[in-house]
Amino acid sequence: MEEEEDIRTRIVTPRESSSFSASGQYEQMTWEEYLNTKIPFDEGELVVAVLNKESEEGLSEEQFAIYRNTSDSLSPIHITFLSYDENLRTYRRMWDIPIAATRAETISLFSQDLVGDRNDCIVVTGMNNLNEHTMTVFRRIPGQRPNEPYIKIAELQIAGSITIQETSRSFAYQQGIASGQSFNIASYSHDPASSNLLDQIETIYSFNAASQRYEQVRVTRIPGSQIEQRRVRELLSGVSGVFEDFINDLWYFVSPQGTIDTRQYLYFDPTGREIIFYGDEAQQVFHWQSSTPTRLGLYIRSHNSSITTLLRFIDIELESLDSIRVRVVEDVRLKITVTATWDGTYRRAGIASVRPPFSQITQASAATFDSSWGRLQFNNTGDYTITSGSNIRSGRYVFYTVDGVDLLEMRPTDGSESGSRMLYRIEDLTTTMILTRVRLGTSGIYDLSEPPITLTPVQ
To answer: Is 43 buried (19+), middle (13-18) or exposed (0-12) by CB count in 10 A?
Structure first.
């Protein structure tokens, strides 16, 4: 069977210039003033997302733009449809309608064939002022009035999460010969009848061809982990910074069979405002722009450190005190093939991931070494300190393995090394450990040709 592809067109929201408080919220936001809209917008209308799409006739380009009124902070965010008017020989707004999302920094705009008839729907996801996830879906209906060819076929607002359940479609669909199966939309929220905060209600919505809308077809109760509820309440309290501190760690991917895959992991660093995606022997670093507490966890907006137009929206849910569930929506200004390779469950690595010869560091007493840096102490909390005379440096550390090579990653949190990541290959000798500075690239591990560091255990 030939490999199938699901091709989506996604356009990122504008780049932004922002600084963050310790809570991770915006102190300021500056949107780009111009996003290549077909016509100028009115004074006070701030465009926050744009999607270009070829018209059904293939003779011109259509455009969808999401904007907000800057003079009224309580006004809803709107989506407008711009199409070419043959009589006026110019683009104009065909219709204008509010959407469920109200927080501009969380909005993602893309097109996807949800129904399976090769007619792309316009999908807008984001969050509202109640920190609920929202999804609004529009679909072109043949025979509609020329000024209003798209109608709303779904709009959800959930104090939980919303996802599109994609399924494989036939080769005939990929070749344009036949229609494909419609995708369902699933929402997940807390089960109000349960005292366990992690018990969820899954609601499935399917497309009804008769009503031309998504309608609820199934509700299922999903039991969550039975863990201490006081701690769960703390993590899901919505207090700024609490859930960020909880995920500050290395997380390994868990396969559907329940096995840990150390070849794919996520590393969350809220202090350094970075998220590292490692998979397929490639490391991607994303800048953590903002985060919003949700009913089940956290919603993060981030952009690639090298390609700032590549955004990822990361929806994280608490699964247990050692595992999280992650869904990633990726936006880019180009037509690309997107696969949800990052979606799934991740288990905390932390100190428990340390393998011999580092097992001593997992003991209750911290492991201490002498080195040319000074005295290096690894604490079992995941922190390290380096003491040299009156100078004390500190940070976070994690041990892990890539392609059979033991690595140590150190992240200063006291301003030293400009907050950079320091990655070392570890060579374990009988009485010492040798650290060699390296970096991870698409083709593997590269030696940076710096003098090695010798660590001698302190008895």
So the answer is: exposed
Q: Are strands 184-190 and 108-112 parallel, antiparallel or unpaired?
A: unpaired
Query: In the chain, what is the greatest distance between 2 CA atoms, to the nearest angstrom?
Result: 87
Distance, in Å, from the CA atom of 193 to the CA atom of 379, rounded to the nearest integer, reads 42
| 338-392 tens-digit pLDDT | 445 788 899 887 533 433 344 444 433 468 888 889 899 888 777 889 998 888 8
Euclidean distance between CA atoms 112 and 163, whole angstroms = 13
DSSP string, 186-202: EEEEE-TT-S-TT-EEE
Reference 50, options 9, 100, 88; nearest CA is 9
> Rounded to the nearest 5°, which phi and psi values hold at 404?
80, 0
Alpha-carbon distances, residue 71 vs 29, 78, 244 (angstroms): 16, 14, 33
Q: Rounded to an integer, what distance in angstroms lies between the CA atom of residue 79 and that of residue 50?
A: 9
- On the question of a cis peptide bond just before residue 357, with omega within 30 degrees of 0, the verdict is yes
Q: Give the residue from 367, 352, 454 showing the smallest Cα distance to 398.
A: 352
Residue-wise pLDDT for 275-326, tens only, equals: 989 887 677 889 999 888 888 899 999 988 877 778 889 999 998 888 899 9
Beta bridge partners of 322: none
**Residue whose C-alpha is closest to residue 253's, from 167, 342, 175:** 342
Three-state secondary structure along 387-410? Answer: EECCEEEEEEEEEEEECCEEEEEE
8-state DSSP, 350: G
- pLDDT at position 16 is 33
pTM above 0.85, yes or no: no
Cβ neighbours of 125 (radius 10 Å): 24
Q: Tens digits of per-residue pLDDT, 67-124?
A: 998 877 778 899 999 888 888 888 888 889 999 999 888 888 888 899 998 888 999 9
Q: Say how far apart CA 438 and CA 145 lie, in whole Å.
A: 62
Contact between 275 and 314 (Cβ < 8 Å): yes
Q: How many CB atoms lie within 10 A of CB 430?
A: 5
- Looking at residue 397, its amino acid is Y
